[in-house]
Design brief:
Layout: H1 2-17, H2 26-30, E1 33-35, E2 40-41, H3 43-49, E3 55-60, H4 65-80, E4 85-90, H5 95-105, E5 110-113, H6 121-125, E6 133-137, E7 143-148, H7 153-164
Parallel strand pairs: 3-4, 4-5
Antiparallel strand pairs: 1-2, 1-5, 3-6, 6-7
Amino acid sequence: MKKLFLVLALAGIVIYSNAQKSEFSKQSLSEPLATLNDQTSTLNDILAKHKGKTLIIEVWASWCGDCVKAMPKLKALQANHPEADYVFISMDKAKDKWEAGIQKHQLQGDHYWATDGMKGKFGQAIDLDWIPRYIIIDEKGKIVTYRAIETDFDKMEETLNQLKS
């Protein structure tokens, strides 16, 4: 009986940790992110900049095979949804790798870098457990998708189409 309870408790924790959230934590909004021009910004600043627009955030890294494999799908999403703004937050370990990845993959959008990587403060604050990770925010600033991964493009397409209606 104790083993069954333990299994159920652990399953509940896993389900809860992967749940969709409707707002960002205070920590995630305030953690500094590097910009391409050697400044810093925060997720709060990014959200303010894109206020009133549908926003797709991709958390990625140039070394991530799944991220690279998903790039054609992301570009198709961008082509189908030019009304949305796109933000890329890199988990690269070095600035030169981050910048080279942007150029190599011709990523169109705003670019930021979490300098302490996936397990750093920003990654922890957004419950980052996998990349690429996609977050969709509607025109009102509400999170409509908190956790999508590279296999969720059909669902993201459906969500973006619903937001256009």
